[in-house]
């Protein structure tokens, strides 16, 4: 199965571009992480330095309400999870989510005296929530990744469009032209639909080469047309002869058993489908073996030929057909024919053979021959084999009763013939 060249090139480049995107995104994410981390630490320290002077005054003046207010303001900062204020007097003030104090980063700050002189008045411990930093880093990474992906998609879309327009489309036009080009139209000019700003390139070289090949092929074909036509006619005639030989008996000219096996199932199918009559007549030349033994096979062949000619005079053109089933046995297929009508046809054939069929012998005498006939009509539950078998059994019955007759002798159909 063919693949568009633009898609093939796209897929080959895609994995390398994706690898470059991942490397670039990872590097950019790392740099962003370092910058965000520095900003994060600076923000925490700025917040702490902002609140330390106020806490110093509140602790110095023992303003408990002011201390709690500062703690509340500190914990409102999303980067600070927990705050612990320890006064030099031993008092301790806490605020925020104490459950995170163990896992997160702890920062310690001294709280100096308000005038900056003297010992410190306490310490401030801040528990930093690093999850905020991680969320910010991830958000930054995905933003960078999205930007790179959007840029890549845009570039690939542009490249893919250009490849399809300038490479795949002309090549597909060329392939379709070659695929649909017929032998009798080899000189059809190849013209590709190219853009208005098209520049002569390798595709045009291919087109020029193909046109040159077309011209040479056309000249060669013109010189060979007469010979090809003659050889084609001879071949067709030979095939027709072979086809005719394959389905006809060489000696008598009637159909052979191979043709019967091919055509008879269709006759049965039509008769069943449209509920039409179908009859078969099995016939056999009486004492044919003795003719061959007494007069030779040449006379036997003459007997077969004139016998077939006699049978064919009673057949309807393009409807009934005659098959040499084997040796001196013949099958007559009578579509659209009931059993009584088929018996009448068989009886006329028998009379023609008995009265008119005379084969000349080498001594000047004439050999009179007779034939026996068995007739069967398709029944509702018949198969091809059972229909032919029943006709064959009626033929056997005819020969067992003395030959030169048609069985059954009436329009009645009996299945007791199987017991014969």
From TrEMBL:
Catalytic reactions on record: 2 GTP = 3',3'-c-di-GMP + 2 diphosphate
HAMP domain: residues covered: 165-222
Pfam entry (one): GGDEF
Location of the GGDEF domain: 276-411
The enzyme's E.C. designation: 2.7.7.65
PROSITE patterns: GGDEF, HAMP
Transmembrane segments: 12-31, 141-163
Protein name as catalogued: diguanylate cyclase
């Amino acid at each position: 199965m063919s693949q568009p060249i633009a898609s093939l090139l796209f897929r080959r480049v895609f994995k390398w571009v994706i690898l470059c995107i991942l490397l670039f995104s990872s590097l950019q994410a790392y740099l962003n992480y370092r910058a965000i981390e520095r900003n994060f630490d600076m923000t925490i320290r700025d917040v702490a330095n902002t609140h330390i002077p106020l806490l110093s005054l509140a602790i110095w003046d023992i303003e408990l309400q002011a201390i709690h207010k500062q703690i509340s303001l500190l914990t409102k900062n999303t980067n600070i999870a927990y705050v612990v204020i320890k006064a030099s007097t031993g008092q301790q003030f806490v605020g925020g989510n104490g459950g995170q104090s163990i896992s997160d980063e702890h920062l310690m700050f001294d709280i100096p005296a308000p005038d900056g002189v003297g010992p410190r008045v306490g310490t401030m411990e801040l528990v930093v929530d690093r999850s905020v930093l991680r969320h910010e880093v991830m958000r930054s990474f995905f933003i960078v990744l999205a930007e790179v992906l959007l840029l890549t998609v845009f570039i690939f879309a542009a490249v893919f469009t250009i490849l399809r327009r300038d490479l795949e489309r002309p090549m597909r036009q060329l392939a379709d032209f070659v695929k649909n080009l017929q032998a009798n139209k080899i000189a059809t000019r190849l013209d590709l639909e190219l853009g208005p700003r098209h520049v002569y390139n390798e595709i045009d070289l291919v087109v020029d080469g193909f046109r040159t090949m077309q011209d040479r092929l056309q000249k060669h074909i013109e010189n060979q047309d007469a010979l090809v036509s003659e050889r084609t006619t001879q071949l067709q005639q030979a095939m027709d002869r072979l086809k005719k030989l394959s389905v006809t008996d060489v000696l008598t000219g009637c159909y052979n058993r191979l043709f019967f096996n091919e055509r008879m199932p269709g006759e049965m199918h039509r008769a069943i489908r449209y509920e039409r009559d179908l009859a078969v007549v099995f016939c056999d030349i009486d004492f044919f073996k003795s003719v061959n033994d007494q007069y030779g096979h040449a006379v036997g062949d003459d007997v077969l030929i004139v016998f077939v000619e006699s049978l064919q005079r009673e057949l309807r053109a393009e409807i009934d057909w005659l098959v040499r089933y084997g040796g001196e046995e013949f099958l007559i297929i009578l579509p659209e024919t009931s059993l009584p009508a088929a018996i009448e046809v068989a009886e006329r054939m028998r009379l023609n053979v008995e009265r008119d069929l005379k084969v000349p012998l080498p001594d000047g005498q004439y050999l009179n021959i007779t034939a026996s006939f068995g007739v069967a009509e398709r029944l509702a539950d018949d198969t091809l084999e059972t229909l032919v078998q029943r006709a064959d059994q009626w033929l056997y019955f005819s020969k067992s009763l003395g030959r030169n007759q048609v069985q059954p002798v009436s329009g009645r159909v009996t299945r007791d013939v199987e017991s014969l």
